[in-house]
Write a structure and sequence with these properties.
By secondary structure, the protein is an alpha/beta fold. The chain is built from 13 helices and 19 strands. The structure holds zinc ion. The site of zinc ion has 7 residues, from helix 7.
């Protein structure tokens, strides 16, 4: 009640934050040397569960102790354990058959007719005679006036969905144009089906049984999978080809027109009356424990409200299987200097600078996330077991790969148009004559590809800055060409190594803006919000009462 009410206090806060903003001094030289250290061969590509993890986290902890920060993990510890479950199908364990209204049982060949996984829960599934529902794209998006389910009840049934999201020209504006929405992802469809009580989701691949693409999909289906903590706990997931779907539809008395309007926005889920599916599959589970490292500056007046700076510390290890011996004849160490030693050190340097400022009103947490390269798993682990309540987490500011160039006019972000953090950033950027832009690569689907995204899914407004390409000297032409060349040459290659030639001026520029943004949030009573067109606002709204 005190904050934001008294004009004098608000004015004082502005003066103070203006003072703070000029107090920081990011050092390109220290960034460079620290990146060099944790991306050296000695850290062996920082793979979770290896000596590289232990070395990385021990070094980070020592840095935070030297800065004087408090441990920010559970129970006053630095580390938050994250249990990762790897699933591998037991060869020959999968079987499937379906029955029509006349009771005839038709066996299905696993691997060509159908693919199946039980990579959730206990790694076993044995489902007898489950009812089937075709749910179009499996999307329920009230903010887009789109609902594939209607009022059908899918409790205890298996839902069949199309992959992706509608791309028909008439509806692309409802689905974010060239940038994909969250609804395009398999986990989004699984979440929706699970929320409605379904026991499984099967993706319909619109290709005949003999199609090379389908057969490739079927082949890849057997690869080891790692479950994201907090993922929908369905019994099974899988896929079928179009021939199988046609047989089921015919048995249920549905004609080819049953899915005619599936991309128009008027479709509603159809029950495959009288058709049932029985499946069994078994997986082995290997468990790996890795760790997030968290440090914290407690807020002075609202310590229960938290701003998180995050970056993943891990990379992909050594060799094709991540844990190969270091080769004596060729370089097989994925040093991950850019991805993401640079972001890791960016967060550490952020902590150094913020620790030197007057303590903020809200708390600030510096979160070094594990296993991002395995599917954002450390961040999902945090969100599934948050150390600080997500309801009163103000924002996550994530760094994955610092920009490596001279100053840029643009500051690119993933997920432009999603939440008001970009507007706050735009004001700060404008003061430097800079502008916030989108990431310019809709086909990459970048928004779902780093540690901000588990926070996004949980409804916490998050910001992930990317690399500007509009160079102060040379403009977009030079900047885009240089970025494309660097990304193509080094991204997820053994050549992603530290170099004394790195130009960290744009990194310093961006870190300075993110420093100002974080402190501004930490000395404010404001709560960033999702924009009305965002698919993530509804989730946040369920906890509005916690942010009065
Ligand atoms: Zn990364």
């Amino acid at each position: 009640m005190l904050r934001g009410v008294f004009g004098a206090a608000a004015a004082l806060a502005l003066v103070l934050s203006a003072g703070l903003a000029s107090a920081q001094d990011f050092s390109a030289e220290r960034l460079s040397q620290d990146i060099r250290h944790i991306s050296s061969d000695a850290f062996m590509g920082r793979y979770p569960g290896t000596e590289g993890e232990r070395m990385t986290l021990a070094w980070l902890q020592a840095q935070y102790e030297a800065i004087g920060l408090a441990p920010g993990g559970p129970d006053g510890q630095w580390l938050q354990p994250v249990e990762l479950k790897h699933y591998t199908p037991v060869a020959g364990s999968a079987s499937a058959s379906w029955a029509g209204p006349d009771g005839t049982v038709h066996s299905l060949t696993v691997g060509t007719d159908i693919v199946l996984r039980a990579a959730t829960n206990d790694g076993r599934a044995d489902i007898q005679n489950a009812g089937l529902v075709f749910a179009g794209y499996g999307i329920h998006a009230p903010e887009r006036d789109w609902d594939d389910y209607g009022d059908i009840d899918v409790t205890g049934r298996i839902v069949i969905v199309l992959p992706g999201e509608p791309t028909a020209e008439a509806v692309t504006d409802r689905f974010n144009g060239a940038y994909p929405t969250a609804y395009t992802n398999g986990w989004s469809k699984a979440d929706e089906a699970f929320r409605r009580g379904a026991v499984g989701v099967i993706t319909l691949i619109m290709a005949p049984a003999t199609d090379a693409g389908w057969l490739r999909t079927a082949q890849f289906n057997g690869r080891q999978r790692t479950l994201a903590p907090g993922a929908a706990d369905l019994e099974i997931s899988g896929g079928i080809n179009h021939d199988v779907a046609l047989a089921w539809a015919a048995a249920a008395g549905l004609g080819p027109d049953a899915m005619a309007d599936v991309a128009a926005g008027t479709f509603k889920a159809r029950s495959l009356d009288g058709v049932t599916l029985s499946v069994a599959v078994e997986e082995t589970i290997d468990t790996l424990v890795t760790h997030n490292l968290l440090a914290r500056i407690p807020g002075t007046t609202h310590p229960d409200e938290t701003i998180i700076y995050s970056a993943h510390w891990d990379h992909v290890g050594v060799g094709a299987d991540h844990v190969s011996p270091v080769s004596t004849t060729e370089d097989n160490i994925y040093n991950g200097a850019w991805d993401n030693a640079s972001g890791t050190i960016g967060i550490l340097e952020m902590a150094r600078q913020i620790a030197a400022a007057p303590r903020p009103e809200r708390s600030i947490v510096f979160a070094h996330m594990a296993a991002e390269e395995m599917g954002l798993l450390g961040s999902y682990g945090y969100v599934a077991n948050p150390v600080y309540p997500l309801e009163t987490t103000v924002a996550d500011i994530n760094i994955d790969m610092l920009p490596l160039s001279g100053p840029t006019r643009d500051i690119a972000i993933f997920g432009k148009g999603q939440n008001t953090l970009e507007d706050d950033l735009a004001v700060l950027a404008a003061a430097e004559g800079r502008v916030v832009t989108d990431d310019r690569q809709p086909e990459q689907g970048f928004y779902t590809r780093s540690d901000h995204f588990p926070f996004v899914r949980a409804g916490v407004p998050a910001l992930m800055t990317w690399h500007g390409v509009d160079w102060d000297e040379g403009g977009v032409e030079a900047g885009q060409a240089a970025w494309t060349a660097k990304f193509g040459a080094d991204y997820h290659r053994v050549s992603d190594e530290w170099s004394a030639d790195w130009d960290l001026r744009s990194a310093v520029e961006n870190l300075t803006l993110l420093y100002r943004l974080g402190l501004q949030l930490a000395n404010s009573a404001a709560w960033p919000t999702w924009k009305p067109t965002s698919e993530f606002g509804a989730n946040r709204a369920t906890s509005d009462g916690a942010r009065q």
